[in-house]
Design goal:
Blueprint (H helix, E strand, L loop, with lengths): L1 H14 L8 H8 L39 H4 L7 H9 L1 H4 L13 H12 L9
Helix pairs in contact: 2-6, 4-6
Length: about 130
Amino acid sequence: MVKRVSIAIGALAVSGGVAVAGDIAAGETVFKKCMTCHSKLGETAQNMLGPVLNGLKGRKSGSVPGYDYSDANKKSGIVWDEGTFKEYIKDPKAKIPGTKMVFPGIKNEKDADDLWSFIEQFGPDGKKK
């Protein structure tokens, strides 16, 4: 009986669209793929070949002060959230044609979930929320 209830609860959670947060520690490992162009997140983060990613959630695309974005990125109208980020990180040039970001993408959904969980924990000031 307990097994049936567990299965029913699991099915209900999946069908109800219950989101499962990514693994922050795993996301930090995935982020190493990003560090060729982006600085480490946190209070000492700075623009490099790519912009600072602190405070990405809720930020308008192309708006980090001091970073030279492509016109495509500045005019994209994107406000970063989990869904938009996952679409972008899978294939940046497909999501924003003309972006300067040269990256093959992160195709694995779990890696993208984990990466988002890692990035979204940092506020605009670089402090963890």
